[in-house]
Amino acid sequence: TYNGVAMTNIGWQKTNTNQSNIYLWYLINPTTGTNNIVATKSSTYWGIVIKWVSFTGVAQSWQPDSSAVSWPTTTTSYAPTTTTVADNCFSVLCGAGASGLALTAWSDTTISNAIEVVLWGLFIAYSTTAKTPAWVDTLTITSSSQEFIGIMASFSPSVISTFIPKITFL
């Protein structure tokens, strides 16, 4: 929940080794100000790490524009994709990679500071330029890690404008 309001799940994924699960949630038009994000785990082991990104200027309905769950891959180059529907979308990727995560990205992608948790590194990556016309959007990440998982979604603008992402780690 965010400020006591239920969020909508876009998808989830787990690693081949079951070391990590990731989930991507969203909330349209959240309350502004300092508010709590609350997550509850259903098992007795491991912990929860919450990372969030906020976009200004997104449409207040029909979100996400598109989404995709990428299956575990065992390469050092990770390129999940989603096909956007609307022009001028921005994309976000919630991901995890094996221990020793040291990420680099293409020029139109920003990666939040990855957090190393037990055996996995967790990260959020997002596009820094609007995609127009609508197309297959790829956020390419490279690392020395040997396994990646991710959930990617695009968000359409309310009007043609620039989104201002905000990253905070809890």
Provide the fold topology.
Elements: E1 8-14, E2 21-26, E3 51-54, E4 66-73, E5 77-78, E6 81-83, E7 90-98, E8 104-105, E9 109-111, E10 115-117, E11 120-127, E12 136-138, E13 141-142, E14 148-155, E15 166-169
Antiparallel strand pairs: 1-2, 3-15, 4-14, 5-13, 6-12, 7-11, 7-14, 8-13, 9-11, 10-11
Short précis:
This protein is 0% helix and 42% strand. The chain is mostly beta strands and 170 residues long. Strands 4, 7, 9, 10, 11 and 14 form a six-stranded antiparallel sheet that branches. A three-stranded antiparallel sheet has the order 5-13-8, with no helix packed on it.
Give the quaternary arrangement of the chains. single chain
Q: What are the low-pLDDT stretches, counting only 5+ consecutive residues below 50?
A: none
Q: Please summarize the sheet with the most strands.
A: 6 strands, antiparallel
Please, how many helices?
0
Distance between the ends = 14 Å
What is the C-alpha radius of gyration, as a whole number of Å? 15 Å
Structural class: mainly beta
Percentage of residues in helical conformation:
under 10%
| Overall geometric form | globular
Strand fraction band? 35-45%
Notable features of this structure?
170 residues; mainly beta; 6-stranded antiparallel sheet; 3-stranded antiparallel sheet; 0% helix
